[in-house]
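Bit of a strange request maybe. I'm writing a small parser for structure token strings and I need a real example to test against, not something I typed by hand. Could someone generate the tokens for this chain?
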Amino acid sequence: MAGSSRNRNMWMAIRIIAAVVVTLVMFFPVYWLVISAFKTQAEMRMAVPTFWPESFMFDNFVQAFQVIPYARFFSNTLIMAVGTIILQLNVALMAAYAFAKGQFWGRDALFFLVLAALIVPEQVIFVPVYVMMSKLDWLNTFWALIVPHGASAYAIFLLRQAFKSINNDVLEAARVDGAGRFSILYKLLFPMRCQRLLRWAF
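Reply from user aminoacidic:
Good idea to test on real output. This should exercise your parser:
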């Protein structure tokens, strides 16, 4: 029993040491990135690297923001990301509602085409999208970054499956109360499945 307990403790110690070593190895690039940001140019070019800055150069950050318009980059990214999510969310909501609860000719065939879009690599449509944006005179605009990504086949599929799990009696009760299609979609289905929507969006 004593030998078994000793072996168990030894293997536990080995696992802990191995985990610490792996953690340090994985964390080292992040550490090196952070301390390098505070070094001078001369210290960065030294043949023998230093693992701690000789003096912390906070002016590096000031100069970086003066030379490179990071604020503009951040605002562009924010506008593109928020605009794309809002557009994709509304398109996916309406399309998924139609595929899940709508009754129209060719519904399943059209949904199959939507699923087929999942297997098309994005690189294949780069040139057609560029030509289309050029003809619309949208080059170098936010429209060219947002509109081509306005429909997500994955989001439509995910929301369709979520909406199909909702009993039709709930929708009928809402219609009896005078709710229209958009009211049912945005005031009933959206709150009921907002958790899955947030999981997809983020």
